Amino acid sequence: MRMITRCPACNTAFRIYQEQLDARQGQVRCGRCQVVFNAHRHLVVEPEPPAQSVPQPEPVAEAKQAAPASPEKAPAAAPAPREALRPEPASRDEAPAPAPSQAQPAHQEPVALSMADATQFDFGPKAQTGRNGAGPWWTAATVFLILLLLLQGAYLFRTELARALPSARPALERACALVGCEVPYSREIEFITLEGSELQAVAGAQDVLKLSAVLRNRAAFPQAYPSIELTLTDETNVTVARRVLKPADYLPPQAGAAFFAPNTELPFELHLDVAGLGASGYRLYVFYP
């Protein structure tokens, strides 16, 4: 069974198959006038042409009446030669079947679709190409927007990029210098620990205490130096003084690096003047501001 759909705008007929109807719920585009229409609403089922029968030869009709029997047996005559059987002509009431070459189609042959017609006859609306397609300006604008998006991502995640690719840090720092930004080091405080701290009096100096401690970076990547909050307490554990120590306050002179190297430790000492405070205890807290 063949199916035909007809464009309601230009009345052009197309042969169509079930898989084409199922592709876009019947939405098709006319290959002549480019009008999109529903093929289901304009569908016509073309019946298959009937199979043409070949006339079969009929047997020769027997004589309606038998010849009267002779009272005497006549000598058997020589049998007459048999005639070749020929098909009898059809009756006058029946029209002769037309030859296959003379069979007329019941309607106009629909336009056959091929792969070459794919750009003219498609299923459902789609983006136009060619005259309305992307030109060089559109391509250049797309490339520019992609580059801008990449630069924005590199700026926002510059710290993560420098940590994942240490060799890329110099290039990132040069790029940041052009726009007035910096590439900070990581600040993962969970990898920073303070170990071996001690507060004791300095021999020969009155009201002077010495704070000694060890900072450790347990991360596998370099980090920024943290800040340290120092709290002094009296004998009843009441706070008598508090100060935030920045890296410049506790770093020893020999620590020339601008970052805390991975898997390293940093010992430091501080002398504190506690005159009139009555300090006897302390607390230390490491953090990133």
In brief, what are we looking at here?
With 289 residues, the chain is of the alpha+beta class.
Describe the structure.
This protein has helices at residues 18-23, 136-156, 158-164, 169-179, 247-250; strands at 2-6, 13-16, 27-29, 36-38, 43-46, 192-201, 208-217, 227-233, 239-245, 264-273, 281-287. With 289 residues, it is an alpha+beta fold. It folds into three domains: 1-49 and 93-126, no CATH class; 138-179, no CATH class; 189-287, Immunoglobulin-like (Sandwich). The strands form four sheets. A three-stranded antiparallel beta sheet has the order 2-1-5. Strand 1 and strand 2 (13-16) form a beta hairpin. The longest helix is centred in the middle third of the chain and has 21 residues, at 136-156. It starts with a strand and ends with a strand.
Layout of helices and strands, plus pairs?
Layout: E1 2-6, E2 13-16, H1 18-23, E3 27-29, E4 36-38, E5 43-46, H2 136-156, H3 158-164, H4 169-179, E6 192-201, E7 208-217, E8 227-233, E9 239-245, H5 247-250, E10 264-273, E11 281-287
Antiparallel strand pairs: 1-2, 1-5, 3-4, 6-7, 7-10, 8-9, 8-11
